[in-house]
Amino acid sequence: MTESRAAFAELDSTVTGMVRFGDNSVVTIVGRGTILFSCRDGGHCALTGVYFIPRLKSSIISLGQLDEHGCQVLIDNGVLRLRDRERKLLTMVRRSANRLYMLPLHIARPVCLAAKQEEEAWRWHARFGHISFDALKRMAKKEMVRGLPMIEHIARIKQPRQSRRSKPRAEAETRKKLRVLRTDIGGEFTSLEFGQNCAEVGVGRHLSAPYSPQQNGVVERKNQTVVGMARCMLKAKGMPAAFWGEAVTTAVYILKRASTKALDGQTPFEAWHGRKPDVSLLRTFGCIGHVKVTKPGLSKLEDRRKPMVLLGYEAGSKAYRMYDPVERRVVISRDVMFNESASWDWTKSGARKDAQQQQAAVSSTFVIDEEVEKLGHGGQGGICIQGGADGAPAVDGLGEGDDDAARQSSCLRGSAGVAVGAAPDAAEYLDADYDGKPVSYRLVNDVVGPATPPGLAAQVDKAEELLFGSAEEPPSYAKAEKDAHWRQAMEEEMNAIMENGTWELVEPPPSCRPISLKWVYKVKRDERGEVVRHKARLVARGFVQREGVDFNEVFAPVAMMESVRLLLALAATRGWNVHHMDVKSVFLNEDLKEEVYVNQPPGYVVNGQEHRVLRLRKALYGLRQAPRTWNQKLDTVLKEMEFKRCESEHALYTRRAEHGQLVVGVYVDDLVITGASKKEIEAFKAQMKKTFRMSDLGLLTYYLGIEVEQRKDGITLCQSSYAHKLLERSGMGECRPNKTPMEEKLKLSKDSKAGKVDATSYRSIVGGLRYLVNTRPDLAFAVGYVS
């Protein structure tokens, strides 16, 4: 509910009513409508069912109703995160001093209104060759493919209802022999060469009668479906009929990944290959794509990308087939930035005539991008075309290129006439000639115009990060005390220490050598790299401790990464959910056996008692014996809960309960929990919360730098953020990608003429690569070779 009339994009004044507040006061509702607000990525979202109450002093939003409508509301450590149904971050705000969350909604001013979901539905409708919305909704609901979001649409549209190499490939994949081939009497099937080939491999032939398509009905009906889809794709983008071959090939590619009534809950691709297809790389046929220029010797002022037309997907590689209307050739490239709402103007400059005359060029002349082995960020950035009057920027041609010409690019820097954003499809501006969807359902971004320029997406994230707290981790207390977020973090740490009775202030005993303390600051991020918490930790300088005096044994077991992967594999095989818990101030939970003295912490020295020291009653971070002390405490607690420790992995505990087995993996203060029964998992969490100060992180999504994605068909581990940080740290953020982990037949020699490198940095990089092997075993040999 809001008091601002100007905030509404739509308002129904016929809706009236009363609202009663806690103080028994009553205000009058004079309307209900929809408010549009800008998202973090520059797009727009609609907030529906908002009451207009002029007497309100401040606007109020119900988190409960947001949750009912599929939004994700997460409140953790004083930070509220609000995500939409697709789990895209809408806003993030810290708790205010009065314990409220003040959401900074930036109201949009649209010319016309359309739901974001409608935009998404139309986009996927076009990507799938204009198949029905019912089919799209069914595929998303039954999770028949990967990468397709939930489709909700209120409108409907009407739709009309190489043989020699295919045989051995089909037989090898199905392990079944081809016995009979039924065809019509087309010339390609009645030739002498084709007949001899069938006879050689022992395949029988059935030919239908002339002008009797009903005798081969399955194939004829499928041909009608394929041609119908190809015709729709060509008409939607106004493409010449010369591209019918490419359209048919793309239609077949799409139909293999679309639902069909003949297969209940499966796509043809899954029925044939035994795995779900990934459709996240699909883009609208015939749309404009800006292909990276790989011409060698490119000058600083030359454009880095060239506009081309998407013809489909290259067989055998994760790359796109892009047509260059200017040079009339096909380019195979993985590095493409798409504007799916834009179309090429085939009526100007004789383009349509050239396309018809040069049809052979479409299938015979092409350039292969050196990076087609692995799709990177192709199509993942929004793009705005800033061309001239003809709608197409005039740029130089794409060079043939060589191995050195292909370089991976995470974003387009300094390109004339093209602006690239970091968010997927963040700025797709509607083409006036595009008739792929009715005007009433055009997306808000297109009608309003560039509310947030795509190139500023990264700057917006940076500015918001500065608002919520700097991403820098201060090296000293002197710098940290100037920042309110770090001051609050230190207060939280000191409160936890005092609540646990960690120390007592005493006079220093004779020959006392107190250990100094230091503040360590860490920015906590989630699996997407977003700042979630500022954490300050008071650490003892344990390196000055003396063995036998300040400590004895120090070993504490932690779960090996192999054990964690095995645990996740077990959960994926049995369909278990994996949960994550974190122990707060973990080393403050157990009493110290040794007599240890430390100095008073920086910034918290008691006035008038500066000479006194602190005798530790409980362990602190940094003490040599702290991990072992904590592990002994946790081991005792888990055994009291009837857990048994694995003999071959002391950081792994199991318990057989009434509803099934429960498994817990321990890595210092991180607990990975899985089991057959959700009830047992929740009961265990409740037990742990009663014993320790715990954070329940829900389903496991991020563990020691590893991103974890749990789905119904398995669990995926990824370290993409870690890999990018490792590249940036080693000065290779703009490096050229390679197809193999290491150079073939590489031989390293100590007698190198290259300049000396810093040994410490080298070891650090190798160590980082070794950790990357946890999810990239293909790097193991190369990393071992340079270790």
From TrEMBL:
Q: What InterPro entries is this protein classified in?
A: DNA/RNA_pol_sf, GAG-pre-integrase_dom, Integrase_cat-core, PolX-like_BBD, Retrotran_Ty1/copia-like, Rev_trsase/Diguanyl_cyclase, RNaseH-like_sf, RNaseH_sf
Q: What is this protein called?
A: Integrase catalytic domain-containing protein
Which keywords has UniProt assigned to this entry? Aspartyl protease, Hydrolase, Metal-binding, Protease
Q: Which Gene3D superfamilies match?
A: 3.30.70.270, Ribonuclease H-like superfamily/Ribonuclease H (3.30.420.10)
Ranges for the Integrase catalytic domain? Answer: 106-276
**Domain of life, source organism:** Eukaryota
An individual GO BP term = DNA integration
| Gene source species | Paspalum notatum var. saurae
* Gene Ontology molecular function terms on file: aspartic-type endopeptidase activity; metal ion binding; nucleic acid binding
